[in-house]
Task: structure prediction
Amino acid sequence: MIELTGVQKRFGEQIVLDGVDFTVAEGETVALLGPSGTGKSVLLKHINGLIHPDAGKVVVDGSDVGHLPRKVLALLRTKIGYVFQNGALFDSMDVFENVRLGVADEALFKDLAYCEDRVMQCLGLVNLAPDVARKYPAQLSGGMRKRVGIARAIAGAPKYLLYDEPTSGLDPVNADIIDALVRRLDNELGVTSVMVTHDVRGAFRVANRLALLSDGRIVLQGTPEEFRASADPTVRAFLERDFEDPSFAA
Amino acid sequence: MRLFRLLGRLVLASLAHIGRFSLLLAELLRGLPEWRVWLPRTVAEARSIGMGSLFIVVLISAFAGGVTAFQSGYQWQTSLPLYVLGTLVVSTIVLELGPVLTGLILAGRIGARYAAELGTMRVTEQIDALESLGRSPASHLILPRVLAGFIMIPALVIIANVVGVVAGWLAVKQVLPITDADFMYGAQYYYRSFDGYYSVIKAIAFAGAITLIPCYMGFNTKQGAEGVGRSTTAAVVSSSVVILLLDTLLAKILLN
Result:
């Protein structure tokens, strides 16, 4: 379970998170919505301790992430797969080595036969052909890089998956493919997921619960139905464009 | 009032740099037991910076030796014995030009590369990705670069010293009627074994400046491509200035 209580974060004069309370229960897929630049990615990075809060608590599986010793935090991170916005693939390594780095267990990481099987399995799960393994990130399209990023995140069989804007910068067709992939992985792997996005349509398709971050605070957390029914002006303003689309409203 | 505010900001920024640099050093020490991670990368990095820098180091040291010899010939007084030229070339190269010129060249070559590589990895979230996989950036990225520098930079300085002295020897014979025996006699007459150690001590100190400062700058890069450019420039300038400061400090401490 992931619990953020009263999380505050500022960078210089700018207050990014101003007392955020946010909870994700086991097995859930939660979409964290909000306009660009509202601190969604900052919030996500608090969950695996890449950023520490100025105030408040971030608790994952009962551990206070902000106060864990270095080695314990590293161990916790192996349970949390993180998919970065632009893939964040290591450009000096080929796809095989990139995905292999996701194998968290050191003994398994050194077992080349296991790693070859595992990397191919993960590439298969994200619909990539085996020959992609020998390509370098610079030889891949944006959509493929995102899928390799997902393959790397799942290689260590994590309990949680954090997606940072998995569909940003993609055309609608590729965005749909990634959305379907996220949904399929959640079902097949049984992971608990948090997906940061400003793509309302994709969020409603993938998540079973949503949260809207605005002005450093969570304005609303609830099911897609609760979001549709909400009269909160911030929620309405954010969703309005998509609600007007009949295909979405249905 | 504005002056005090500016001064205060400067002091705070300097303290922040000292704090972050100390944390980086602590991280490197903590990463030392993970030798299975950093050792293979250190070997690859050492090979890369050694082979990649050899040509420019040989070129610079050969020119330095040659120019030292030609200028000595130009200023030569006939009242001095010719063998002194051997002393002059060897001392100039081993005590000063070999380590300092090599250090400055490598600050540009290796330092800029380290800062740009780590800076790019920072702004493209590759360092965050490494941390998110439960792996230590210190063991994977910084320790191999620093250790490779500490191994290869002294080795390159020794090569630079040898090449510089040989080039000076060959060059001085072109401008003055000195025999090989005279040159060798002069080279050995005033040479103390400490001179060689001093050169290597300087090289080790410079290796610290050439590797640690650029790694620190690159690791703490912010704000995209512009930030990478800023870090790279700052890394080269800072490590060059620190090399010159260390050069003066070591001369004062070890030679006086």
Remarks:
- Chain A touches chain B at residues 45, 48, 50, 70, 74-78, 80, 82, 84-86, 88-91, 101-102, 104, 152, 156 (CB under 8 Å).
- The longest strand of chain A covers residues 14-24.
- The two ends of chain A are 32 Å apart (CA to CA).
